[in-house]
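Internal ticket - ligand job 574, CU-O-CU linkage:
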Amino acid sequence: MRNRILCAVALSATLATSQTTLNVVAAPGTATFAPGVTGNAWLFNGTLPGSTLRVTQGQTLRVRFRNDLPESTALHWHGQPVPLGMDGVPGVSRPAVAPGQEFVYELTNLIPGTHWYHPHGHAMQLDMGLAGLVIVDPANPADDPPYDVEQVVVLDEWSNPLGGFYTGHLLNGKSSDGQIPIAVQPGQRLRLRILNASAVTNYVLALDGHPMTVTHTDGGRVQPVVVQALPIGIGERYDVIVDCNNPGVWSLAAAAITNRSVTLVRGVLRYAGQTQAPPPANFVPPNLSSGALLSYAQLAAYFPVPPISPAPRHRFTATFAMSMGPGGMVHTINGQSWPNVTPFQVALGDVVELTMVNTAASLVQGLHPMHTHGHSFRLLNTAGGTTQPPVKDTILIRSSGQPGSTAVVQLVMDNPGLWLFHCHNEDHMASGMITAFEYLGDTDADGIADGVDHEPTTAVPVTEISDMAADFAPGASGDVSVQWTAGQLVDLFAGLSELSTPLVFPPYGTLVLDPSSAAFFGGAWANASHRAIVSYAIPNDVGLIGLRIAFQSVGLTALPGGFRLGTAQALTIR
Ligand code: C2O
Ligand code: CU
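stdout (structure tokens):
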């Protein structure tokens, strides 16, 4: 009887829209910084930086993620307004993925531009090499500025958390000695997609002998601004176009924003036919040390954006401070440290104006690259005025007393859930510099408040497994926990195979489990905390290691139709 429900809905299903499925595996590996210079690292798909995930606007990106690290982790899609359940923040959007287990991220509403993915779990994972680009090409290629060649530039520092001999800064995963020159022909337009993926360093980047024309910030296109040097806070992205009209072999050099007279790492731009040796690694291009820096005030959006509202629904202030606590340095927003914070409370559709104020005067420790999850913001007091404000998701707030120590932004609250707003400096984040926006209300009317609902916009049961490796070993027992409306019955189905293309049939949900091989596994009523718990026990037989069992839940509901298909989640016996 229960199986017949799954089969019947499968017959009426429609095919999902255009999607791309990509695999990402996080695992320990070895990074080669330069010939003969290696270090232990944690890597996505074996490379540093991790493989670039590239799709076209309008597509759904499914990322099959497997965690082969010795600890749990999750993937955050920095700059993308994904649904909360996919945001990759353990404890906020879902549990983390246990070692040896998998999770499929379904990324919809992807916005064009240069974005990135990285873990959001234990503070130092990003520092061990886990970062990669997400590039979304515009559906209409004419939305991009014209260019001939393209190169990613991922800046990072390597502080040796896992052992190995190299300590220093990296450009595309290599030290200055390991650089593969960027090859261009005279007359070409070179597009650089630049990301600062470092844990604690805010950089300045400059290309000797060439100005750069800024075309995008944080993925969003801006009116072109010609600059000599580009400040780039942790988590920020800039796309620039270089007119390659100065043949030679040139240094693409990065310095710390706090000391522009020392080159920390440099790449090389080599014109065809130019055979001379690259500039020395410690060469400081004049524009790096003293070229005029891009200022946020110069930016204006290129495409139409919602204008700045003269009457936002809320005006919030976020004041940043640091102090010495009993356990060391504490970073606070409005006097609070994560997780003991009072989120900014909002409702769907609200316009929020957020004023950031930095009270920390230390030139090095007082820099705060602030990032909003699930939402971009429009930046006030720029060349874009109130009608064409630039759109960003990360902004570098300078030390108190310096220009840029405050900023005013507006957000349209259009993505229900609980969303972090935090400093992207890993040390500051680890010592509390995180708060959140919490949506009040229950957008999908499933009885679970948006701020705690792991799928706040779709009324579906959310099927979750443990983030502990020990729960998946032969002889272990554990729980499949389904988040669903308190008091409603949840049935859990199990099978050995999933459909290669999930079948979507509104409003019942998406069928992922192959109904021909699925069987009823167990049922439970969701408790007052919206949890239906179905326990399992794994036979103590090492022959089972590697066996993968897929689960999908079906929850009864008072909503039209009477039931909803839950999300699917596999577990693998390890
Ligand atoms: Cu790059 Cu909370 O994110
Ligand atoms: Cu900070």
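Auto-summary: Residues 7-16 have pLDDT under 50 and may be disordered. The pocket of CU-O-CU linkage (ligand 1) is lined by residues 76, 78, 118, 120, 235, 371, 373, 420, 422, 424 (CB under 6 Å).
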